Amino acid sequence: MPRLQSIDIDPVDVDANGIAELQTPSGAGDLTLDGALISGGTYTSGDGGARQIAVITAADDNARTLTITGTDADGNAQTETMTGSQLNTTTTESTKYWGTITSIAIDAATAGSFTVGTVDELASKTIKLNRHATTGGLIHLDVTGTINVTAQVGAWDPDDYSNQGDMPWIDSQDADLVGATGNAIGNLDIHSVATRVIVNSYSSGAEVQVYLSQGYK
Predict the structure, then answer these.
(1) Where are the beta strands (DSSP E) in 77-191?
(2) How far apart are CA 195 and CA 190, in angstroms?
(3) I need a labelling partner for 146 at 20 to 30 A (CA). Which of 56, 64, 83, 105 fits?
(4) Low-confidence residues of the chain, pLDDT below 70?
(5) What is the biggest distance separating any 2 CA atoms in the chain, rounded to whole angstroms?
(6) Which residues lie below 8 Å from residue 145, measured CB to CB, with a gap of 6+?
(7) Are the C-beta atoms of residues 101 and 53 closer than 8 Å to each other?
(8) 201 and 130 part of one domain
(9) pLDDT tens digits, residue range 165-185?
(10) Three-state secondary structure readout of 108-132
């Protein structure tokens, strides 16, 4: 019998200031996490995955360094820094996906205000695969609403990396599983060690159910 696994990704609406509302730090320290998505001083994704976030800067703060601390979709600790042109009167999205955020620290007083919130991109938890199986995992994407999703795979053991964002991922070679906007089914690459599903964009109310089956041999 094959192994059967599933993930329910049910994205909540984007909230541009849901993590840190408009504030101008007067010195080094943590931004105040005071948005609508904060509970008990911590941001926790409610999507069945982890979210990319956006930092909006209102002035030229390219000399500053912002450090985000929290966890990935699998609950592993991670950090990310933004600096230079990323903080220069612009909106910068994080590279990593965040299951939780416990602090966002700035290294000195800022020239202008900062706002932090979510965007319409997220990652599922990591699903480990049997690299010794003679076939790749069969993945089924059951889509509701307007959403764009991609299945990614990795050739390295996730346990060799401290967090999901540090592991090298590539899009599946099955074109039906890349940028899918409707129901899709396809095969993951043989000998892949792990997979995850990325939501590239979505509209309010959309969701995707992910079903994965793979033989033991």
Answers:
(1) 77-83, 91-93, 100-106, 114-124, 127-128, 138-144, 147-154, 170-171, 184-187
(2) 12
(3) 56
(4) 1-2, 215-217
(5) 61
(6) 202, 203, 205, 206, 207
(7) yes
(8) yes
(9) 999 999 999 999 999 999 999
(10) CCCCCCEEEEEEEEEEECCEECCCC
Residue 182: give its domain's CATH number.
Answer: 2.60.120
87: helix, strand or coil = helix
Closest to 213 measured CA to CA, from 163, 122, 104, 140: 140
| Domain end (from 101, 122, 143) | 122
Measured in whole angstroms, the distance separating CA 157 from the mean position of its chain's CA atoms is 19
Identify whether residues 110 and 147 lie together within a single domain: no
Domain tally, the chain: 2
193 closest CA partner among 162, 168, 163, 165: 168
The answer on 82 and 149 residing in a single domain is no
| Whole-number pLDDT of residue 137 | 85
Q: Where are the alpha helices (DSSP H) in the chain?
A: none
Alpha carbon of residue 160 to chain centroid: 19
User: Taking the model in full, what pTM does it have?
Assistant: 0.93
189: DSSP letter: P
Which residue, chain included where needed, has tokens 């990593």?
96
- What integer pLDDT is reported at residue 216 of this predicted model? 60
The confidence score (pLDDT) of residue 79 equals 98
Q: Looking at the structure, do residues 128 and 118 belong to the same domain, yes or no?
A: no
CA 58 from chain center: how many Å?
Answer: 25
Based on the domain organization, do 156 and 206 belong to the same domain?
Answer: yes
